Amino acid sequence: MRRSLFHAALVLGAALSPAAAAGPGKAVGVPTAPIMVEVYSDYQCPACRVLFEQTLRPLASDYARPGKVYLIHREFPLTGHQYSRPAANLATAAARIGRYEQVAGALYASQEAWSATGKLEESALRALTAAEAAKVRQLARDPSVAAEVEKDVALGTKVPIRQTPTIILTHRLKQYPLTGSVSYPLLRRFIDELLAK
Amino acid sequence: MSFSQSKTARWSLIALRVGLGLMFVYAAWTKLTMPWIQVAMIVEGYQLLPAWAVELVAKTLPPAELVLGLWLIVGKWLPLAASASSAILLVFMVVLVRSFAKGMQIECGCFGAGDPLSAYTLARDGAFLAASLLMTWLAFRQRAQRLARNN
Q1: Would you give per-residue pLDDT tens digits along chain A (197 residues)?
Q2: Selected residues 27-46 of chain B with any CB under 8 Å from a CB in chain A
């Protein structure tokens, strides 16, 4: 009973999270795509790194850019992770100048290093030009960026997200919560089945 | 064994087999109402099986749980049904403890989606295993007493 109620809450909560709420530069594809994939992640979570590198990257190129899937990245920094929130601020700032994927990718690629040292900016902004890096640094201190991260967290809390990464896949108003580092072959098969319906 | 002890044991066995039977039916229902690929994603998360086995488990585990649950509720050949229940719960427990010890951030999947692996899920499934082992012991003891009476 408890599981059913939780699942119903998860589905209802996700249904109430509109695609329009995607942060600027945090979505790939078109909002009218038949499938919406919302990903709640934490940059310090190892499973999120695996999901981003092995599943979301091919998903973006094979399905989101061709318009079959609308992929939305949402921030869900966990309280137990010391540097997750500043990392989310940096990624959100990078999204504002259209460099989300580069900065998120750099954060995940060097996750172990900055999780130990806290030297986030060095790792995250490596993929950017000096001018872009300066802009991102400046934007990351902007209160509106922190507010955008907080908005994602509030949205995720309402769903409710219980662990990262969590994907909320929506097709014809039906919600499918998927947690953990879902592999690309299975996700692709699932999406193909839904698209064929 | 006194009459009252025997009666307590009989009613305990009925409560255990019906309770665990309903638990298995519910576990099956939560998975059968999901697309099988969603179940496969949960099974895959444990990183124990090759792709073909993940698909096989995702497709066969929910109906197997349903059959086992109904079998326990009906109560026919109870020592065998109880042994099957204990065996399957023991396998689940070993897999859950291994994954928890490795710090894996995955779904338990015991009752469908939205059930992250945690100390709570370990305690809950441990309680089910303990109940199933008690049921198995009571079922074999009841059968032994029946055979002794018949001889």
Answers
A1: 444 444 444 444 444 444 446 777 899 999 999 999 999 999 999 999 999 999 999 999 999 999 999 999 999 999 889 999 999 999 999 999 999 999 999 999 999 999 999 888 888 898 899 999 999 999 999 999 999 999 999 999 998 898 899 999 999 999 999 988 899 999 999 999 999 98
A2: 30, 34-35, 37-38, 40-42, 44-45
Q: How far is B121 from chain A (nearest CA, A)?
A: 12
- Chain A residue with Cα closest to B112: A3
Nearest partner of A24 among A95, A74, A86, A85, judged by Cα: A95
Are residues A182 and B41, on separate chains, in Cβ contact within 8 Å?
yes
Spatial distance between the Cα atoms of B64 and A180, rounded to a whole number of angstroms: 25
Residues belonging to chain A with any Cβ–Cβ distance to chain B shorter than 8 Å: 3-4, 6-7, 10, 45-47, 162-164, 176-183, 185-187, 189-190, 193
Look up residue B62 and give its amino acid: P
Answer yes or no: are the C-beta atoms of B87 and B135 closer than 8 Å: no
Edge to edge, what strands does the sheet with A35-41 contain?
Answer: A27-28, A69-75, A35-41, A166-171, A174-179
What's the CA gap between A102 and A119, in Å, rounded?
A: 17
- Whether A164 sits inside 8 A of B105 (CB atoms) is yes
Contact B12, B117 (CB under 8 A): no
Confidence (pTM): 0.83
Q: What is the DSSP code (8-state) at residue A22?
A: P
DSSP string, B78-140: HHHHHHHHHHHHHHHHHHHHHHHHTT---B--TTSSS-B--HHHHHHHHHHHHHHHHHHHHHH
Q: Is the ipTM of this complex over 0.85?
A: no
CA distances from A103 to A92, A97, A165, A193 (A): 9, 11, 18, 32
